[in-house]
Amino acid sequence: MSGPTMPEPDAGVIARRGEIVAALRTMLAEESVIDSPVSLKPYESDGLTAYHQLPLVVVLPETVEEVSTVLKYCQANGVKVVPRGAGTSLSGGALPLADAVLMSMMKFNRVLDIDFDNRCAVVQPGVTNLGITKAVEHAGFYYAPDPSSQIACSIGGNVAENSGGVHCLKYGLTTNNVLGVEMVLMTGEVVRLGGKHLDAEGYDLLGLVIGSEGLLGVVTEVTVRILKSPETARALLVGFNSSEAAGKTVAEVIAAGIIPGGMEMMDRPAILAAEDFVKVGYPLDAEALLIVELDGPPVEVDILIEEVEAIARSNGATTLKVSGSDAERMAFWAGRKAAFPAVGRISPDYYCMDGTIPRKALPQVLTGMKELSEHYELECANVFHAGDGNLHPLILYDANNPGELERAENFGADILRLCVKVGGVLTGEHGVGVEKRDLMPEMFDEVDLAHQMRVKCAFDDGQLLNPGKVFPKLHRCAELGRMHIHRGEIPFADLPRF
Asked: Where's the FAD-binding PCMH-type domain (predicted)?
């Protein structure tokens, strides 16, 4: 496998593969255990296809009891487990391991309860993101987080990566829209965190689980917040002659106290690719394009549109169009939603990054990415959630050309280093996975990482759940519990010890 170094496979576990598969077949239906090389092939990677590895075996449990039984068996026998949703992760979070059971949760695909009175729904983790909205839209409700992969990505995967989408600026990411989860620990114990109530007392364990990338447990049920659809929504399609002018507009809109339902930006390569793909009327002479959606009562939306239009024109907008119908608004978004597959049509391969920066740094970072593009001699198309500074640079390369993947990886790493340098973070919604794992020290020191690892140890002290992800260096949990003694002196010697 190319790419980042993964933990050395346990030869003993691989040697016991036949025994492990046979044991799993006693716990699950025959068709729920996949072990032939041909059948394993579709599971060899997630959306980060640059890295791939066949798993030891794939299991598709259908009940909480089956999940618990499999995890309990793996815990007792020292077998690693990699949880997986729909496999749309772009950070390698569901990358299989040669000595690990890959647990796909896609048979958990039912909507269990819709509670309009309490404005929530209870769903299994294999339900797609868009599937939640489809289940409640007849009553005028929807589920707000809407990643571009929403037609395919699962809500369980959204929980693992804390996914966002074009409407996360106003309505929040997954963590702001999930009220509770049921999950199974590596020991097989079933726990429930949160529920239909808005807040729980004590430690925010639910907050720990959302975005934990499958390192703490396997989610088997999710309670999500559903919202009433806004009275009206209209969108502006605004072209600029530079990305810097578009970025300045974004900053000024937010500074004016306007919180759009969505505010997305695309640069020229992305505009051309998207328009060629969906043909919705994007301005082909623009260097940058903003899509700004305002929602709420009609009178409020009318006023906000005027304010955003004034800001855009003051920054030199070259084209400006306001949607006149809901169909036209959806057409504006169609290109943005299809930007990733659209770019895939113009390049043999692309590497999708995910970093988040302060909005005021947007012009500086865009300029920096142009310089990096020239340095690495690779094109880059930019598509991102401009309102909250979540960048999605798409680095174009050809894996068939020797050295291009490595250049793309280095280009991406430098983009993320730039994000951290200007006060941003390594990820906004794609997660760390293996893609950003070795960049974690750019943002966290050893003490920070050790504290994060202690949380992992509290849930999974054998480090059997999704190992090799997120943390650049694995420590045994016992090591993290040791006290550092320097020159025979313990720190804070005056404090009582228990």
From this structure: 51-229
